[in-house]
Each structure stands twice: as C-alpha cells, then as structure tokens.
Amino acid sequence: MRIPFLKEMKIGAMSWQGEQKLLVGGRTNVSNMLTTPGVIDTVHGPWMQDEGWFMKLDLSHAGVERFGEPSSACTGETRIGAPVLPVAGEPLFGLSCLAAPRNAPGALLGSTGPAAVPFEVGGAQIWLDAANLHLTPALADNLGWAAADLPLAGVPVGVAAYFQFVWADPGSSGSVGALHASDAIGIVRQP
C-alpha cells in the first residue's frame, strides 16, 4: 500500500512509551494526511507553513495481552514477548524473553488462567494460576535472551493460555541466588 503524503511527513521525534506503544511526532505541509476531519489549519502565518502532528502506535498483536510486573535482573527488566501473531498455520509462533540473567537456567511456566492475586516464590512474583501450573525447562543465552516454541496446530480458535518465564540467577559465585520472573502474557488463539 502506498500512502501518497508519507514522503511529506517530517518526523521530529519518537518516544517509546513502553508496553509496545510508540509516540511519533513531526510536521507536514500537506492537507490530506490521515486525521480527524476539519482539524488541519489552512491559515498559517509567514513564519510557519507546516502543521504539527502526533501519532500513538500500538505495536502489539491481536490475541496477545501482557500483564503483571517483571522483576529486575542485571541486564534490566525481564520481559516476555510474542514476536508473531498467534494464528493457525504460523510455524514460528513462540515466546521470547529479554533481559534474563545471562546463561541462567529457568522455566517457562504455563497455566489456564492468570492468578487472582500474584504469589511469591524465591523473591519472584508469579502472575499465573497456581492450580493449573506446568513448566517447561528453559535456558537463557550469554546475552540474557531465551525463546520457546509453542506449536498452535490443533489448538481451537479462542482458546486462551497464560505464560511467564522464571529464572534462577547464578550469581557471581556460581551458586543459585534469587529467582527473577518476567511479566506474564495471555495468548488467545486467533483464526
């Protein structure tokens, strides 16, 4: 798709607003940009011929909802993500984790629902329903990144599942220290 006025939009600033939101602002001198009808100012003074604009973009996928708070590790806040849309036939669907403790052993926790109230294990907040909790071993690499494949074949449309990564921090002495947990994510299988 070609947007004719895009080449006339001058980006002045971008700001990451967290939770996959991006705020972009700039200026343009075209009157046919995507906006609320009637808000383009067609009368300008001699000092300004451009119109300012802002866009707030939601970069999250349909069927993916993040919740809970991550704990901090040495590389930053430990975050869970779903890089692709959870749809049928998507062979690459899975979850990723950023800023885990480097080279740390851990687990991807899964459940059929979120916790009504989060509970603590080894200093980490768990945001999943403990009654239906299952775990899959995971290992963070030397950059603090990990991934887990989640095949969607045979999962009916509309079925929800909830996930969270938990990591054992090896600490400087090599012995296991505190646990670190990502925020949690809810996935609803899309058509």
In short:
The chain is mainly β and about 190 residues long.
Secondary structure topology:
Layout: E1 10-16, E2 21-28, E3 51-58, E4 64-67, E5 72-73, E6 76-77, E7 79-81, E8 94-98, E9 105-111, E10 114-121, E11 124-128, E12 134-139, E13 146-149, E14 160-168, E15 179-188
Antiparallel strand pairs: 1-2, 2-3, 4-15, 5-6, 7-8, 8-13, 9-12, 9-14, 10-11, 14-15
Tell me what the structure shows.
The chain is mainly β and 191 residues long. Helices cover 0% and strands 46% of the residues. It has no helices and 15 strands. It has strands spanning 10-16, 21-28, 51-58, 64-67, 72-73, 76-77, 79-81, 94-98, 105-111, 114-121, 124-128, 134-139, 146-149, 160-168, 179-188. The strands form five sheets. It has a five-stranded antiparallel beta sheet with strand order 4-15-14-9-12, with no helix packed on it. The chain has a three-stranded antiparallel beta sheet with strand order 1-2-3, with no helix packed on it. The chain has a three-stranded antiparallel beta sheet with strand order 7-8-13, with no helix packed on it. A hairpin with a 2-residue loop joins strand 10 (114-121) and strand 11 (124-128). The two termini are 24 Å apart.
SSE ordering: EEEEEEEEEEEEEEE
Class based on secondary structure composition and strand pairing? mainly beta
Number of helices: 0
Low-confidence stretches: 1-5
**What percent of the residues sit in helical stretches (DSSP H or I)?**
under 10%
Residue-averaged pLDDT, rounded?
77
How would you sum up the global shape? globular
**Main β sheet profile:** 5 strands, antiparallel
Radius of gyration: 22 Å
Distance between the termini: 24 Å
Count of β-strands: 15
Give the neighbour order of strands across the main sheet: 4-15-14-9-12
User: Which range does the strand content fall in?
Assistant: over 45%
